[in-house]
Amino acid sequence: MTIRESLERREKEYLSPYAAFSMDSRGREKEEAPCDIRPVFQRDRDRILHSKSFRRLKDKTQVFLTPEGDHYRTRLTHTLEVSQNARTIAKALRLNEDLVEAIALGHDLGHTPFGHAGERALCEVCPYGFSHSEQSVRTVELLEKDGHGLNLTYEVRDGIRNHQTSGNPSTLEGKIVRFSDKIAYIHHDMDDAIRAGILKESDIPRDITEVIGDTLGKRLDHFIHDLVTTSGGLNDIRMSEPVAEAMQKLRRFLFEHLYTNPIAKGEEDKAETLVKTLYEYYGKHIELLPEDYHALMDRGEPKEKVLCDYIGAMTDRFAIAQYEEIYIPRCWHG
Asked: Are residues 70 and 209 in contact, defined by beta-carbon separation less than 8 angstroms?
């Protein structure tokens, strides 16, 4: 018996009957020999962790565009917080930690530079539209490894595709990541807003804090405990009604006071314009795209989608550098 088979057997003995078992995975699009050490979801986690798109997350915006200070979240630190929340919940419910970790680490691989501002820009200019969750799936299925993709299991790709509020993941592990994503950004966006002096803890309405706590730590703890206690023994992942309602109120509060706040978001119009300008420029000069993107078009991928692949994969810093290289005279560079 291999180490992998031993680990798969242990899953059957220990995990909840509602868990996604590695040995029962619906498999990969391209069949390949199993690893003798790692079950399939652990192997997927490792592939994501070692991917180029994962490394780029460190230089992509979460909420604050090019913030001054070392402690504001990036897309990478957000991803790690989602992963940690998800693993905590999965462990408590005896669900598959490898699967939740793989989904969590991969859920934002397709995010654009400048956060949702970049996503909105590409969605407006591309005739096919643009969604970061679908682009994350496209990244792992097609764009990584020079157009060969990571060949991940169905369960991981399904969880990545359905991590947003409108999604409906097919596994409980995917549902955990869907909740963990919201918990993470509600927690850390409030923390970053306090750090930036945009909000104070006392600004949060009392009807919210009385339910889920009056500090960042209390709220994070309350969300996770509520998910675990409410979902225990169920073939579902859910929050209790009062906590779910308080979470929705807190999200609305953040949308009203942070996500539309000119201090945090005043530069987003410029970011959108930059992304749209790059899309238009490279659309007219498609020959300037790297060879691997031309290879995608040779395989029949539409030019407009490939433009999104190229621009969407950029970090904030690289997108700004490309714009300066194209449009700003060298003598004006600082």
From this structure: no
> How does DSSP classify residue 73?
-
DSSP secondary-structure letter at 143? I
Q: What is the pTM of this model?
A: 0.96
Three-class SS state of 259: coil
Assess contact for 136 and 201: CB atoms under 8 A.
no
The CA-based angle 151-295-278, given to 5 degrees, is: 100
Q: Are 293 and 34 in contact (CB under 8 A)?
A: no
Which residues are within 8 A (CB) of 10 and not within 5 positions of it... i.e. 6 or more apart? none
Answer positive or negative: Cα dihedral of 248, 249, 252, 253.
negative
Tokens of 37: 């050490």
Question: What kind and span of H or E run contains 221?
Answer: helix 216-231
The pair phi, psi for residue 74, each rounded to 5°, is -115, 180
pLDDT in tens, 149-194: 999 999 999 999 999 988 899 999 999 999 999 999 999 999 989 9
Non-local (6+) Cβ contacts of 210 within 8 A are: none
